[in-house]
Design brief:
Blueprint: E1 11-17, E2 23-35, E3 38-43, E4 48-51, E5 54-57, E6 62-67, E7 73-78, E8 85-97, E9 103-116, E10 122-125, H1 127-137, H2 141-159, H3 167-179
Parallel strand pairs: 1-9
Antiparallel strand pairs: 1-2, 2-3, 2-4, 3-6, 4-5, 6-7, 7-8, 8-9, 9-10
Length: 182
């Protein structure tokens, strides 16, 4: 394990901002560890996620993967979510560890890949927000091209349940989170 990462079980936070630097979601999480895919953080039921104008409490245990080799997404997987949410991928820019080893940071880029365990299935969400914010924030064309292609790639991989989007990869991390008893 990287000496600059917290010990498993250490509380930390995910801190997101928008392209213009304005604050976005801040979530209370706990560091779980790392594997070949990257670093895993968990959010037990009852822990908070806040942004200006909104405050949510986790309704189901969930884990987030910060991929080891990419800075363009954060992958969150839920267990037992009341609205059948299983996978929620935030397309991002500069998603990484901050200088503070207890803070993961990134720019939320609006597009999301979602998998629900009901008739809605797997889809790309928030295209309307993506279009509006691309004008409002002036996203560079190369960033937009990259993230649009990445969203399609991730949608395909989630639909195929290819690792790390498969239960065999994610469920041990959810089990580890639940075992902490937080």
């Amino acid at each position: 394990m990287n000496a600059n990462r917290p010990a498993p079980g250490t509380p930390m936070r995910q801190s997101w901002r928008k392209w213009d630097g304005s604050p976005h979601w801040v979530s209370e999480v706990v560091y779980l560890g790392a594997d070949e895919w990257g670093h895993w953080m968990g959010q037990p039921v009852g822990w908070r996620s806040k942004r200006p104008g909104a405050d949510f409490v986790a309704e189901s245990p969930n884990v987030t993967l910060l991929p080891r080799d990419r800075q363009d997404c954060a992958i969150t997987v839920h267990r037992g979510h009341p609205r059948a949410l299983r996978v929620y991928i935030d397309l991002a820019w500069d998603a990484r560890w901050s200088d503070d080893p207890l803070v993961m940071t990134g720019i939320d880029m609006d597009l999301d890949v979602v998998r629900r365990l009901d008739e809605r299935g797997t889809y790309i969400d928030d295209r309307d927000e993506w279009a509006a914010h691309s004008i409002r924030f002036g996203y560079p064309a190369d960033v937009m091209t990259h993230l649009e292609a990445r969203a399609l790639e991730l949608e395909h991989r989630v639909r195929a349940q290819a690792a790390p989007f498969d239960d065999a990869t994610v469920d041990p991390w959810l089990d580890r989170l639940i075992a902490l008893g937080l």
